[in-house]
Amino acid sequence: MDNDQQSLFENDDPGLSYAISLTQLSRAVSKHLRQPCQLSKLREGSFHKAYRILRSHGPLTVVRVAHPCMARDKMESEVATMKYLAGHNFPVPKIYAWDSGLNATGAEYMVMEKVPGHSADSLWDNLSLSDKKKIVTQVAQHLLAAFQLQFDQAGSLYLSHATHTSNPYYVGPIVTSTFFQVEDGLPVYSDRHVADGIQKFRGPFSNTADWLSHSLRAEIFALKSTHDHEFDANAALANMNDAVRLCSVYPGDNQVIPLMKSPHMPFSFRFDDISLKNIMIDGTCQITGFIDLECTTIAPLWECATVPIWLLPEDDADGFTDRSFAEKEVLRNIFLSEISHSHDGQEWLDAYEMGRDFRKFVYRLDCSASTWGLKSSALWMQDRFDWARLHPGVRCPNPNEYRFEIIS
Fold first, then answer.
1. For the Aminoglycoside phosphotransferase domain, which residue ranges apply (predicted)?
2. Is 170 a domain residue?
3. Got the DSSP string for 106-155?
4. Which residue, of 115, 142, 171, is where some domain finishes?
5. How far apart are CA 145 and CA 288, in angstroms?
6. 198 occurs within a structural domain
7. Which residues have a Cβ under 8 Å from the Cβ of 319 and sit 6 or more positions away?
8. What is the DSSP string of 20-69?
9. What is the model's pTM?
10. Which end of the chain is more exposed for a tag (fewer CB within 10 A), N or C?
C-alpha cells in the first residue's frame, strides 16, 4: 500500500508489516541529487519497491527501496556487485547514491540510473524470431563475459572499506533467501536464537564442499533448535547429515571441469534472476541493461554455467508440452552456439555439461526438512555415494543406467 506520506510492505502476518516514509525518502533523494525531487511508484518486486524520480533536469533516475526485513548486507552486496560488473563492461544501471544504514526513511535505498528501453518480457510475444535470436546472442555474450570474472572464494561480493588494500572488492558472507527474515509474507524463523544462530553458516567459503553444504547446515541447526515437528525429525536429521557428508565427495573439492584455466579461481557470478523482465532492450533489440541483480552470488563455475530458464521447455498444469517448445529449442541452440564459437567458451561448456547432476544436487539441498525424511532421499544419496567412490568429480548418470552398469 502506498500514499503520499508512506509505503507499506505488507505481509501475511500483520505483525510483520513494515512502513517506510516516502516523505523522508523524497528528502533524501533531493539531497543526493541536489535539486527538489518527487517520487512516482514504478514497480514492486518480492524484496523491494521502485520509484521514478521526478525532477526538472538530469538523466532519468529511480530509487529502489529494500524490504526492511532484509539483512543490511543484502543491498551492500548488490551495490558492490553492480559496480564490479559495470567496471567490466557488463551493462547494469549506474548507481548515484545509496544508504544501507539506519535512516529516517526506515529502509535501505539505492538511487540509480533508469535503464532506457523496455523489458524484453513486455515485447517478447510480438518480436520476430530474428529479433529474439539477436537478444539471445547478446545474453550469451554477456553471461559468458561474466563467467570469466573468477574468484578464489564463494559467497557474495562487497566493497572494501579498508585503506591498506589495492582491491576495492572482497568476497564476504553469502546473501540468499535461506537467511532472510521473511519469505512469502511469513517469518522463516520466528525464534530469534535460530535466526541469529544460522548466520555463522554464511561463509565466505574457500572450498566447494563448504559452499555446497552451507544452507543444509543452517537447516540442521534450525531443526535441532526447534520442536513439535509434524514429521519424523530424526529421520530427516539422519538424511540431512548424510547429505552434508555427500557434499564433501559429490563433487566435494574434486575438479569437475577437466581443463580449468585458473584452478585456484574456481568461483564466478551466479545470477539469481536473468529473466526476460530483467533484460532491458531498445527499439533495435539491443540490450541496454540488466536490472534487479539482488541475490547475485559467487558460486562454483559448474553452478554458474546455466542456460536462462526462459529458454528451457516446461510442462503446463495439465502436463501438455509447452507450445513454444520448438522456438525455445531453436533459441537455446543459438545461445549454446554463440558460446561454443567464442574463443573463451569451452570452459563454460565443460562446466555446463559436467555440472548437470551437481546442479540438481544444489536444487535438492533446498528441500524442506520434511522432504529429507523420505526414503527416496536416502536412496537418491546412496546412488551418488556409490558413484562418487568410483568416479570422483564426475557427475552421476541416470541412476538406473548406473545400477545397470554395476550389475553388468
1. 48-302
2. no
3. SS-EEEEE--SSEEHHHHGGGS-HHHHHHHHHHHHHHHHHHHT--BSSBB
4. 115
5. 16
6. no
7. none
8. EEHHHHHHHHHHHHTS--EEEEEEE-SSEEEEEEE-SSSS-EEEEEE-TT
9. 0.88
10. C
Q: Which three cell numbers stand for residue 226?
A: 526447534
* 22 located within any domain: yes
| 258 and 109 housed in the same domain | no
Torsion 23-27-28-29 (CA) sign: positive
Contact by Cβ (8 Å): 277, 121: yes
Instruction: Please write the tens of the pLDDT for every residue from 159-207.
Output: 997 656 678 999 999 998 777 755 544 456 667 788 788 889 999 999 9
Give the C-alpha separation, 292 to 66, whole Å: 11
Provide the number of structural domains found in the chain: 2
- Give which of 242, 182, 247 is closest to 208, Cα–Cα: 247
Residues 82 and 85: their CA atoms lie apart, in Å, by 5
Under-50 pLDDT residues of the chain? 1, 12-14, 184-186, 316-320, 401-408
Q: Domain span at residue 235?
A: 116-154+205-408
Angle between helices 375-390 and 233-247 (to 10 degrees): 20
Q: Which of 200, 164, 194 is nearest to 181 (CA)?
A: 194
Please check whether residues 243 and 317 belong to one and the same domain.
yes
